[in-house]
Design goal:
heterodimer, A: alpha/beta, about 45% helix, B: elongated
């Protein structure tokens, strides 16, 4: 994998896993890594500094959307062919990246999502239910059919990355990105991935409260961008 | 004049005085001053002539003037809350823009000349 794949890792208080994630990516041949430290209060930034990757530090926590937008903008300055977003909690497997970016390299898609639901074995039931609900909401609001609207493993062609505008700052960004894909008429594909579930990564997902909060934000996105 | 009317009027006069003071100190814009002035004078009018509200209420098909005031107040309150909501949202986005600009000003690798700024 040459330097034209840039991996963006949004990180908030991930001191336990971030170094392992970076090493895993490097072992997988990734040379362009951009970590966004979203105002972590732990040693995330400090640890990242020692790894020789690009660190974009947020003075204040802006949420996943804010971190991703910063990371993507930072990544674009290196003019990569493909930008991949990757979670900092160890849930994603770097070995999934080659098949994730394949449709883009072949020119078949502009946005690719790694879907955990195409092979959901190992996913806790409550996550599956929550995911299904999120998928339905994403479909109702934006007309996007997806099996895993909340997946953090995504790949964009450089062109797609420049066109999507991320305005939400919380976890609504996952659905917002799909909505942006629709708005820009980008080609969308899914590949199956197998997440690595540890007690740690499970504790770092969305809760019902966040889910409802996210729903409210998504409705705002829909109204602002597409009209009621 | 009922005691409650006097009490409420006193409050309105106080509020009006604050508004005028703020405007004179140039801490309030003309349009804002106008709205507040209108609002408080309207409140004073309704306090002094409560039957006015009953009149309008009957026009609209509601029983009492007081009910009309309640409905109108609620609507206005909801509207203002919505405006605050949107303003807060805007503010959050602005903060994110600043935080992002700060972060991107510190890329640890040199930016290629001629790559330009995104915005």
């Amino acid at each position: 994998m040459d330097e034209r794949v840039a991996v963006v890792i949004p990180a908030y208080n991930e001191e336990q896993t971030i170094v392992g994630v970076i090493h895993g990516l490097k072992a997988g041949g990734i040379t362009r890594i951009i970590v966004v430290d979203d105002g972590s209060s732990d040693r995330t930034a400090e640890l990242v500094c020692q790894e020789g990757v690009v660190l974009l530090p947020h003075l204040l926590n802006r949420g996943l959307g804010g971190a991703l937008a910063t990371g993507i903008e930072g990544a674009l300055r290196f003019k990569p062919r493909i930008i991949v977003t990757f979670d900092a909690d160890g849930q994603h497997n770097p070995d999934d990246i080659p098949q994730l970016i394949e449709p883009i390299e072949k020119g078949e898609a502009d946005i690719v999502i790694g879907s955990r639901m195409l092979d959901p074995a190992g996913m806790p039931w409550y996550r599956r239910v929550a995911n299904r609900i999120a998928n339905v909401v994403t479909y109702l609001l934006f007309g996007v059919r997806t099996t895993d609207s909340q997946s953090g493993l995504r790949a964009f062609s450089r062109d797609a990355a420049t066109r999507i505008r991320i305005m939400t700052s919380g976890m609504a960004v996952s659905s917002e990105i799909l909505a942006e894909g629709v708005r820009n008429r980008l080609r969308y594909k899914e590949v199956p991935v197998k997440p690595i579930y540890t007690e740690y990564s499970l504790s770092k997902g969305q809760s019902l409260k966040i889910g409802l909060h996210t729903l409210r934000k998504l409705i705002l996105v829909k109204v602002r961008r597409f009209g009621p | 004049m009922k005691p409650i009317q006097l009490l409420l009027l006193a409050f309105v006069v106080f509020a009006l005085a604050r508004v005028i003071q703020k405007y004179k100190q140039r801490r309030m814009r003309a349009l804002e001053f106008f709205y507040w002035l209108l609002g408080w004078l309207g409140a004073a009018f309704v306090i002094m002539v409560p039957d006015a509200t009953s009149f309008v209420a009957r026009l609209l098909g509601i029983g009492r003037g007081a009910d009309l005031i309640m409905y109108a107040s609620l609507l206005i309150a909801f509207y203002l809350i919505l405006r605050i909501h949107l303003a807060l949202d805007r503010l959050e986005q602005d903060v994110t823009k600043i935080v992002r600009a700060m972060a991107l000003g510190r890329l640890t690798e040199p930016i290629e000349p001629g790559s330009g700024d995104r915005e």
